[in-house]
Specification:
There is one protein chain. With about 425 residues, the protein is α/β, with parallel strands linked by helices. It has 3 domains: about 15-80, no CATH class; about 95-290, Rossmann fold (3-Layer(aba) Sandwich), CATH 3.40.50; about 305-425, Rossmann fold (3-Layer(aba) Sandwich), CATH 3.40.50.720. It has 14 helices and 19 strands. Helix 5 runs parallel beside helix 6 (about 200-210). The termini are far apart.
Length: about 425
């Protein structure tokens, strides 16, 4: 079963300003008109960590977010170079968070128990990163394959016993894989489909690989949660799409796939798990109340998006002013979590080494490097404990409970946390 022949052609690009990545003129999902609702300015690639403070800056892009007037797909108007983004030394590791490691273990257990019924059933993961999801399936002897273009992450997955193909998932790759391995009973993708510029080609590959009785399971940050929480740091170059149930339902329909269930998740500050299968004559979608909310409340209407953009502007201004005031008073301020989201916050708020002494992180591949754009030193989180700042900006707010439990001595010793989602607060 293949993609419908009447899907519009892909969007055409426009020439970029010198040194900037190009932009698209039309919706990548359906080819219709885009209406911009947010502009965070010119930003560096979120995971383009520098090896020295004097490194060349690397590519930049205009972080402008638009909504399709036809299918409601929110998307980045920049057209990124995915080879630059997901290069062999790509630094992000899914297992760097204990809570995410537990989450993926639970997801793997559910999938094994609910959807893997025969020894020969294939579980395919698109964007397997360091293998944290597939490793428990591998340990249980489940037939599986992870696909990821980042060589270092793929090697980490192999070290856990995961079978990995180090490449971008595409329709061409899916044709070859189907011929070699047959269809997949389960296709799982977490925090990956929103990263894929040519989503129609990816879904063509999904339609090639998904067995007739198979299940497609997608986890991604949920746009209405981003709006409600003023989580403007979710907007960066790797997040090309911002899914709602409505927009995902519409693009899946182009490929004869239908949503059958939506399940809210706490991951990444508010995500949704979507379950889809081949279309049937009788619809059976089980909508979580939040999926209904996005239609009933008008959350995806342009006037609400404009209100959201205004709140974001106020948050950015207040955060920048707060950090600058603290630094001007002589207080030491540092960041907690060298996340991709922190790149958006730091650079869209104009923060520099004059305000932020360092950013601590527990990912070995980031430690000793410098943040994209502002080039703030990234140090081990051990430094945070031995030489704590007076104020810490919680860039890893989506892991807030885990961080606060881990760093109880910071606040008991007089340290204060500065947060900015849903609003700027110093506690």
């Amino acid at each position: 079963m293949r993609v419908s022949e009447n899907v519009p052609a892909g969007p055409r690009g426009v020439p970029p300003a010198p040194g900037r990545l190009p932009s698209v003129l039309a919706c990548r999902a359906c080819g219709s008109h885009l209406q911009q609702f947010l502009d965070l300015g010119v930003l560096p690639l979120a995971n383009a960590y520098r090896t020295s403070p004097s490194d060349a800056g690397g590519p930049v892009y205009e972080c402008r977010i638009a909504m399709c007037v036809n299918c409601n797909m929110a998307q980045l108007q920049c057209e990124p170079d995915q080879a630059q983004q997901f290069h062999p030394e790509y630094a992000f590791r899914s297992s760097s968070s204990a809570s995410m490691t537990r989450h993926f273990a639970q997801a793997a257990s559910e999938i094994r128990d609910s959807y893997v019924s025969h020894q020969n059933d294939l579980v395919l993961e698109i964007g397997c990163n360091d293998g944290v999801f597939l490793s428990s399936l591998a340990d249980a002897g489940v037939r599986h394959l992870g696909v990821d273009p980042a060589a270092a992450a793929a090697d980490a997955a192999r070290d856990l016993g995961v079978t990995v193909s180090c490449t971008f998932f595409s329709s061409r790759f899916a044709d070859e894989l189907r011929a070699a391995e047959g269809p997949a009973k389960v296709i799982y993708s977490a925090n990956t489909l929103t990263h894929v510029a040519d989503i129609r080609d990816t879904l063509t590959g999904v339609s090639t690989m998904l067995a007739q009785d198979g299940i497609l399971i997608i986890e991604e940050p949920y746009l209405p949660d981003i709006i409600r929480k003023n989580a403007f740091d979710q907007f960066y170059d790797e997040h090309i799409y911002y899914f709602s149930a409505l927009s995902l339902e519409r693009i899946l329909a182009q490929f004869q796939l239908e949503l059958i269930r939506t399940l809210p998740l706490p991951t990444h500050g508010g995500s949704m798990r979507y379950y889809a299968r081949w279309q049937e004559s009788v619809r059976t979608l089980r909508r979580d109340p939040r999926s209904v909310w996005e239609e009933d409340s008008g959350a995806l209407e342009f006037h609400e998006l404009s209100t959201f953009a205004h709140r974001v502007s106020q948050n950015r201004e207040k955060l920048a002013t707060t950090v600058q005031t603290l630094a001007a008073r002589g207080e030491t301020v540092a960041g907690y979590g060298a996340t991709a989201k922190s790149t958006s916050v730091i650079n869209s708020c104009g923060l520099t080494t004059k305000q932020l002494s360092y950013i601590c992180d527990n990912t070995p591949s980031k430690i000793g490097k410098y943040s994209p754009g502002a080039r703030i030193p990234i140090v081990s989180d051990a430094i945070f404990r031995t030489s704590p700042p007076e104020v810490a900006v919680l860039f890893a707010w989506n892991h807030g409970s885990e961080v606060l439990t881990k760093e109880t001595n910071f606040q008991s010793g007089g340290g204060r946390w500065l947060t900015y989602v849903p609003e700027v607060q110093l506690t």
